[in-house]
Specification:
binds S-adenosylmethionine, two-stranded antiparallel ribbon, alpha/beta, seven-stranded mixed β-sheet, 273 residues
Length: 273
């Protein structure tokens, strides 16, 4: 495992190139699990139809961030939402266009970076992300602020990331993945590099407390942190997510937040009317 500081521009460049290059393999490996028009939140297989984290979506304006090939966006469209799918990678969005052709369900797609959303203030009722963008950006606080800006008052922002405690363990689905390898408090990013030392893949770590502070600082309110449990009978591994580890500790954290309807800043707290 290689760790070093990686700034915003290098993170974005590395991840755009990575997801462009990896798009075919990612879908060859995970496409059947994700489905053509399904909302799977995480490798534990949690489906939005069962979880209901987004609330009623019919008729709502929904933004999916880091949509990849956009199966979640197509599922939301099929439920009657007005969805926009956003992703950094043209390679991933090409798979989204193929998915639209296959299913006949098409949603507007936007190629953009999550830290600079190309939408007017208060454009969406709901924003969501299943492992899109948030784990990969160096300034996730900026993503929280951007999402808060484009949400209408009362709008929900729900995002799934690798559970922060997984950071301590090696990326191994087997028994080797049960040994603590590094400090939970070490925020140095995980990075893969090419022959000249340039980052080709970057993931950034935040502790649970970091995530909560970034959410609150953006003017959002935290409603829940969902830790999907590994279901009985689910034996499909996805990278470091496996039944063996899933039975012992969480692999995914889903942060459920909303933008307050009206907020007054007071000296020591936010008062919601
Ligand atoms: C693990 S994939 C998840 C894709 C999809 N949500 C799914 O469940 O299959 C991560 C996605 O986030 C996108 N991504 C990474 N960094 C991003 C950024 N800074 N802004 C927008 N999208 C980004 C990648 O291009 C990729 O499509």
């Amino acid at each position: 495992m290689r760790k070093r500081f990686v700034g915003a521009d290098e993170s974005v460049a590395a991840n755009r190139a990575w997801w462009d290059a990896d798009a075919d393999d990612y879908h060859a490996q995970h496409g059947s699990f994700l489905g053509d028009a399904e909302y799977i939140w995480s490798p534990e297989g949690l489906h939005e139809a069962d979880a209901g984290l987004l609330g009623e979506v019919a008729g709502r304006a929904v933004l999916e961030i880091g949509c990849g090939s956009a199966p979640c966006s197509r599922w939301l469209r099929a439920q009657g939402a007005q969805v926009v799918g956003l992703d950094l990678s043209a390679g991933m969005l090409r798979h989204a266009m193929a998915g639209a052709a296959r299913t006949g369900i098409s949603v507007p797609l936007v190629q953009a970076e999550a830290g600079a959303l190309p939408f007017a203030d208060a454009s969406f009722d709901v924003a969501c992300s299943a492992f899109g963008a948030v784990p990969f950006v160096s300034d996730s606080a900026a993503v929280m602020r951007e999402v808060a800006r484009v949400l209408r008052p009362g709008g929900r922002w729900i995002f799934a990331v690798s559970h922060p405690m997984r950071w301590m363990f090696s990326d191994d689905p087997g028994p080797d993945g049960l040994h603590v390898m590094q400090s939970y408090f070490d925020r140095t990013p995980y990075v893969e590099i090419d022959r000249v030392g340039r980052a080709t893949y970057v993931e950034h770590h935040r502790t649970i407390g970091d995530r909560v502070r970034e959410i609150v600082a953006a003017g959002l309110e935290l409603d829940d942190i969902v830790e999907p449990e590994w279901p009985d009978g689910h034996d499909r591994e996805w990278g470091q997510w496996s039944p063996m580890r899933g039975r012992l500790f969480p692999g995914t954290a889903i942060f459920r937040t909303h933008k307050a309807r009206s907020v007054t800043r007071t000296p020591d707290h936010y008062k919601v009317r």
